[in-house]
Amino acid sequence: MPLESLQLDKTAQLAEELSLLSYESLTVLDKTQLKRLLLDHVGVCRRGAEQSWCVTLRKWAKKYNLTGASPVFGTEFTTAPNVAALLNAAAAHGMELDDTHDSSISHPGAAVIAAALAVGAHKNINGEKVMPAIVAGYEAIGRIGRTVGADDVIEYGYHPTALFGGFGVAVTVGKLLGLSGNGIASAWGLLLSMAGGSMQFSQDPFGTTVKRLHGGYVAHNGILVAEFASLGIDGPKGSIDGKFGLANLFGKKPDFDELSTNNDNLLEIHKISLKPYPCCRLFHSTIDALIEVMGHYPIDPSDILKVIIGGPRIMVTQHMMRRPESIMAAQYSLPFTIATSLINNPGEYESYTDKHFNDQRILSLCDIVDAEEDAELEYVFPEHFGSWVEIVTQHGKSKRVKVIDSIGTPENPMKLEDIEIKVSNLLSKVQHAPSVRDIGEAIQNVTQDGGTRRLVSLFSSKGSN
Predict the structure, then answer these.
(1) Is the pLDDT of residue 51 over 90?
(2) In this structure, what are the phi and psi dihedrals at residue 137, rounded to the nearest 5 degrees?
(3) CA 285 to CA 226: how far, in whole Å?
(4) Bond preceding residue 301 cis, omega within 30 of 0
(5) What's the mean pLDDT in 224-242?
(6) Which is it for strands 304-311 and 369-373: parallel, antiparallel or unpaired?
(7) Residue 248 CA, distance from chain mean position
(8) Contact indicator for 89, 161 with CB cutoff of 8 Å
(9) What pLDDT is recorded for position 460?
(10) Domains of the chain (ranges plus CATH)?
(11) 241 neighbors 10 (Cβ within 8 angstroms)
(12) In 3D, which of 140, 14, 103 has the Cα closest to residue 409?
């Protein structure tokens, strides 16, 4: 059999494997982790829905009111699943607080969970089907991202969430629609022609909202292709590893073995980092290192001569904008993140808002932040988003701290109570938001009849009253 035929089989094998994933196959630890991911997602999504550009999208979406039974977070109306998922995923991806799968450098939860809840609510599917569908979505994104080579992809200028996310959504929704492995592979073939997502937003101080939409685009498109495949519309097979499949189109040195079952037998949902800081995931180890430096060696920011950051190459090539003029640009700016972390609370979303863009204390610190590639940290990236911080004072004193695995990573996870505090703090600024206790109870009972609808209804403006 030709080598190409053997490679094409890997896409089909992955689709078949994920189509057979069931609730009964999930362990207690798997189900516990899923509930943590759900809690984090809905909290971030509901707060994100209040951002001004999300409110604008609601106005656009209102013309689709009553076209389906999927609630749009923060509104009283329901709409078609693809429309609701677009808005909800964009909201979840809109605060730089959604979960991250490090080795694929992507944010699977924003799109996968939003799509699963939208379709689950529309069709009144309970959690026993929704939860394994979510697992399959994370599994697809993680394995496909490693196969293609996410670190190369992002260096080429493609955003991994936009490039890989639709494949995760397609399998999640495909399972909810009852697609076979062959049907999922067909949906992936349809999705292949939609895959993309430029990193140009990282170079622009203003036009950054498109990054928020990347989560929404893939949620919308993943639902569409799964629905089309369920109608019998065929997509080309070999969408991941074919001659013109995703890996060969976008990858530098694709590793097709990554499509096969994980060698560690650990589902991708256990390889997720949750974010305590509302900024680029790459900076979280940097903030942790900065906090450690300042904790051990209290330094007045005005006494700092320079701040040097060491980390993966991408820090230097894509994150050194010193004068961001939008929230997204600020959250993607290493100098601004370090500067505002020295002046403000790095865990507060408000630390990245426009009221700080002309703060001369912050801007003067932005000008003394420099980054350099660290060969060791580049080697372990993206499996580990490590970095080090060195602060040099006016008096010539120098202090350096390195952090390999930041708070929230699988190696240094957030506790459940920390996630609850994060969600509670986010929702404290939302009128009529549900309590963390009510959310937790709904998640706990999501496998009961009507459980998905009850959970999602908490986040409509009517259901929150």
Answers:
(1) yes
(2) -65, -45
(3) 37
(4) no
(5) 97
(6) parallel
(7) 24
(8) no
(9) 87
(10) 3-276+419-457 (1.10.4100.10), 281-403 (3.30.1330.120)
(11) yes
(12) 103
